[in-house]
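cache lookup: miss for this entity combination. No prior model stored, computing from scratch. Input as submitted by user K.M.:
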Amino acid sequence: MAQMTMIQAITDALRCELKDDENVLIFGEDVGVNGGVFRATEGLQKEFGVERVFDTPLAESGIGGLAIGLSLTGYRPVPEIQFFGFVFEVMDSISGQLARYRYRTGNTFNMPVTIRSPFGGGVHTPEMHSDSLEGLMAQQPGLKVVIPSTPYDAKGLLISSIRDNDPVIFLEHLKLYRSVREEVPEESYTIPLGKADVKREGTDLSIFAYGLMVHESLKAAEELEKEGYSVEVVDLRTVQPLDIETIIASVEKTNRAIVVQEAQKQAGIAANVVAEITERAILSLEAPVLRVAAPDTIYPFPQAENIWLPNYKDILETAKKVLTF
Amino acid sequence: MGENIAKNFDPKQTLNEIEDKFQMFQILNEEGVIVNEEANPNLSDEELVELMSRMVYTRILDQRSISLNRQGRLGFYAPTAGQEASQLASHYALEKEDWILPGYRDVPQIVWHGLPLWKAFLFSRGHFVGNQMPEGLNVLPPQIIIGAQYVQAAGVALGLKKRGAKNVAITYTGDGGSSQGDFYEGINFAGAFKAPAIFIVQNNQFAISTPREVQTSAKTIAQKGIAAGIPSVLVDGMDPLAVYVATKDARDRAINGEGPSLIETMCYRYGPHTMSGDDPTRYRTSDIDNEWAAKDPIVRFRKYLEGKGLWSEQKETEVIELAKEEIKAAIKQADETPKQKVTDLISNMYEELPRNLEEQFKIYVEKESR
């Protein structure tokens, strides 16, 4: 085993899949010689050749169209959208096309596409680079939406996503690329999609989170432990479809829950988790299920980013409201 | 400053020169006379008769579809009369294994490529079985989003190139579609990858009601290929021989590793945009209608073939009768197809149903068994 950052784990997953399946193709803007703007595809073109790992013209909808056409000719495309804020340029290819092909063709064509893309705040990017748009994706039937929070998960989830025969949106939090390092096996392994991970067990409160917010939630849980509260932290890992079993089992144990997301509060994943809990486990609840989320504005210009983004203090505050309800 | 630029490079003159070069390619004129013998593809007698038969058949299919639609027996339908040469002669230049990415008016091409007629009717009726292509038929269901098929055609063509297949991906849109971002991205991607794609713009003069001149300042749509660095041609889309030759040339280049081509076919749809309430008298005059009717592809091809002794009223009647019979049988088969269920649709969402859909599947099994 080697110590890896998330970006290294992602490169490693891509390498494993390029080796394992000759139909896997990686393409996008600057993914070739340059290895991607975050070096996620570092060295892959050199190792696997320009036929397998290649640059495209700068046009996201074209990249989406390539992914669809290559799927139709038997390939397993893994395109990169350079920043997920650019997804609006490829929304038809994703929501209007990729997500619908299996359905549209009555289960005769499928799209084994994994779109990888960085997202997430806290690194002072220009506009349209940091938005959390997973809620938008999760509302589209036909897609799966995966967001890892650790290097180990990133590798296993990415391999599962690539092997999945339906389209997966695989979102990589910018701030997690190099900030967390852990042991990651060098061989290939998978982590099932649609399965949450209980990062920390507890009995007084469940915190549901994903992406960077898992780390903020763990930090909050530690603080709460000092005050005598036993807090469970669940990393959703796949935000569509949700792991209902794990969520409900946790709430039935702790009877109190909060849901944390970096995205704006309106609509979104957290609202969906709250709805599932109230529909399925309301009699287990001792307090309302509250959300920690960003305010309902457009993603802020960098100067206001640190106040805008939810952090462990916001989580603590909301957790206490629920714990003392 | 402006003058200095003009001395070295005159942008306006360059544009004019390029635009003037896009003269309409024609082989068979409106009178059914070959005006460009050099370009005559010299199709065999059987091939000429086959192409004519397909056009006549398809005209009947259009008439019957309109009438079935009016009787409430069809559903969504985009009329095709006037575009037979553009659609069927371009298709005639293809090989069986080639891929077709059609727009919603391009049902005739995919039917002649092998989609059973009853399935085409089911597509019109909004039944998923109409979109289940028979094994080995390289056809996508008609695209509803204008232009989306262009970027996908670049992808299919790149896939074919990577596989080393000697085949092409052909895709169709209209004059309106040439304004979409996906149009440019599609031709540009295919060009950049030298992918074997053929992009056809059927310029039928109106995007629903919007006339061609509102779409672009460009004198021709064909010239847009120049910017993407791909060969392009403006063709008389009412002339089956010219359309055939332009497509065949594009296909030969593609197979030869020379990349994609763009073909603008100048044509006209006689009918409304679709049968869903469009009234062409709101945006077209009968003068324009008559002007285009005089260019009719079937009329001119009939004259040409009759002159060669290859076609007769009797032959035409035979084709019409065959079309009517087959359409009747296809409607019957479409009628006999089991009704579509929500549970079918739920099953077609993913390879494995996630929990939410599993739960909803059970609910609809119960609802649909009531």
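stored under new cache key. The first strand of chain A starts at residue 2 and ends at 5.
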